[in-house]
Design goal:
Blueprint (H helix, E strand, L loop, with lengths): L1 H18 L4 H7 L4 H11 L6 E4 L2 E4 L2 H13 L21 H8 L7 H15 L19 H23 L6 H14 L18
Antiparallel strand pairs: 1-2
GO molecular function: hydrolase activity
Organism: Coemansia reversa (strain ATCC 12441 / NRRL 1564)
Catalytic activity: queuosine 5'-phosphate + H2O = queuine + D-ribose 5-phosphate
């Protein structure tokens, strides 16, 4: 996706130069320590962050990249300076493909037998060189915005929210960002042990 990546860089750079004196720090300042406002500003000003889709006749907004942008700033500055947000807990997990695998591993997310079989066959098909341009149920790359992809990502967000509520109920302070970071690192560190759990394969600039 080299051309898409170049296009994203050009788009972001142009907006920053035209509206924010070439500095993303000015975008952060404009949002007055609100993580939610920063997400909304990024999505409004930079179209490449608009992770928006149609599902069962309704619009859904996942905004994975916009939210992980805010989370990374928060983590990098350890909640101080540019990373100080008064509503950081409003950020959800970052719905892509690796965290759902970890959620499935821990029993926090389940797939129907039909979907699980499709994902397993898709991994084999892609490894064998499937072009990925066909629609399910033929195995291959799952198109961005397909209902199955949206269900996996949406239910992953809800699963992490449920985990957050359970942990908070026991008196511990946690948010979806910390759980996502943990799940991602766990999945990467235990790749071999989790090899039997298939991931959905989607080529998208929103991940």
């Amino acid at each position: 996706m080299f051309e898409e990546r170049i296009s994203v860089l050009h788009e972001v750079g142009q907006v920053l130069l035209e509206k924010y004196d070439g500095k993303f720090a000015n975008v952060i300042r404009e949002c007055r320590a609100s993580a939610q406002m920063l997400v909304e500003t990024v999505v409004r000003e930079f179209p490449c962050f608009r992770d928006e889709h149609e599902f069962c006749g309704r619009s859904v907004y996942l905004y994975k990249r916009a939210q992980i942008l805010v989370a990374d700033i928060w983590a990098c500055f350890e909640g101080h300076g540019f990373g100080s947000f008064n509503d950081i807990d409003q950020i959800t997990m970052f719905a892509d493909y690796r965290v759902p695998q970890a959620l499935y591993h821990f029993g926090a997310l389940g797939y129907s037998p039909r979907l699980l079989e499709y994902l397993r066959r898709s991994e084999i098909a892609v490894q064998q060189g499937d072009s990925g341009h066909t629609q399910p149920p033929k195995p291959g790359l799952l198109p961005s915005g397909h209902p199955w992809e949206l269900e996996i990502r949406g239910n992953s967000i809800w699963a992490v929210e449920q985990i957050c509520r359970h942990i908070r109920a026991s008196g511990h302070n946690v948010n979806a960002i910390l759980i996502d970071f943990y799940m991602w690192d766990y999945a990467k560190e235990h790749t071999t042990a989790m090899r039997a759990i298939p991931i959905h394969l989607t080529r998208s600039k929103f991940y």
